[in-house]
Amino acid sequence: MTMTVGRTTESSGTSSRAGTDVERIVLAPAEAGEVERLLDQLLGVARSRDAGSLAEEVRPAAEGLPLRLRQFLVRARQRESEVFLVSGLPVSTDLPPTPENWAAAERTGAGLREELVLLLCGSLVGDPFCWSTQQNGRLVHDVCPAPQAANSKTSASSLTALSLHTEDVHHPCRADYVSLFCLRNPDAVATSVSRIDDAVLSPETRQLLRQDRFRFHPDDSHTGTAARPSTGPVLFGPAAQPYLRFDAEFMSGLDDAASAAIGETEDSLRAAATGVVLKPGDLAFVDNYRVVHGRRAFAARFDGQDRWLKRINLTRDLRNSHRTRDVRSRVIG
Ligand SMILES: [Fe+2]
């Protein structure tokens, strides 16, 4: 995989863009202080609410975030920015140890303040939602290496690379954005991203990828029987700037030509991949329709200081899932 680490540029107190790379805003200390004060106000409410009603509470509260941050996030949503990053967000100085797995985080409620940071910023980009089949239906996920999952094909892996993928590729209501807030990353493990616009594909392959010749399966992070495979194209939408649905590990071609196209697309996306190293206080948004993401393999420490991210799925309109079901809920499944 061709990977350049750290192609973003930073400039304190400003927003920036480096070529076609990651768009980033770096909060000034005074702006981070504004976020801290908002968190202080919300923390009591957060402790007494379930995740669904907390999400309702957080959206209007997000109007209290620094103006420059709000403008950055709203503009990124408006112009469908592909990968964008907020740096300099507050992370607790007394952060508890990295949990040994997501279930441990659920039990202890570790990192609630950081979950609020993610929900506040995320709510300006989309509506948070979750899956009943993933992490026990939690709205905010914990991404941390688990010893028992070191070689799995889930975000709890470490010794195995997470190949480039669309989040929850099997489902028509999958996220518009995946958001990742970094609490710890001591070994500078990069998140890889690859844009469909950077993939070099022949016109014949592009045409084939637009046909309903692919089956998409639930990935291994989904448990139970509620998650089902679906069939459709890999590419769709505007020809010049197509949308993408791809996860070579959890999809199959319905015929030999379609299977070959999966291999060609995977090679091309790998060749175009870039690495983004998230540091504590960095919040990344990845457009799940224009960019695939993954993570390189690494040796986890399992000492309470491992890489730890909080993650939420964001949709641009919750109603898209409501109209396919008989309930209104942020939990799909
Ligand atoms: Fe993912």
From TrEMBL:
**Span of domain TauD/TfdA-like:** 271-312
Q: Low complexity bias located where?
A: 1-19
Report keywords, A-Z.
Dioxygenase, Iron, Metal-binding, Oxidoreductase
Query: GO MF annotations for this entry?
Result: dioxygenase activity
Mention any Pfam family matching this sequence.
Answer: TauD
Where does the record place the region Disordered? 1-20
Looking up SUPFAM superfamilies in the UniProt record yields: Clavaminate synthase-like
Query: Signal peptide position in this chain?
Result: none
Which residue windows are transmembrane per the record? none
InterPro entries recorded for this chain? Clavaminate_syn-like (IPR014503), TauD-like_sf (IPR042098), TauD/TfdA-like (IPR003819)
Which family, according to the similarity comment?
A: Belongs to the clavaminate synthase family.
- What is the recorded name of this protein? TauD/TfdA family dioxygenase
Q: Which organism is it from?
A: Amycolatopsis albidoflavus
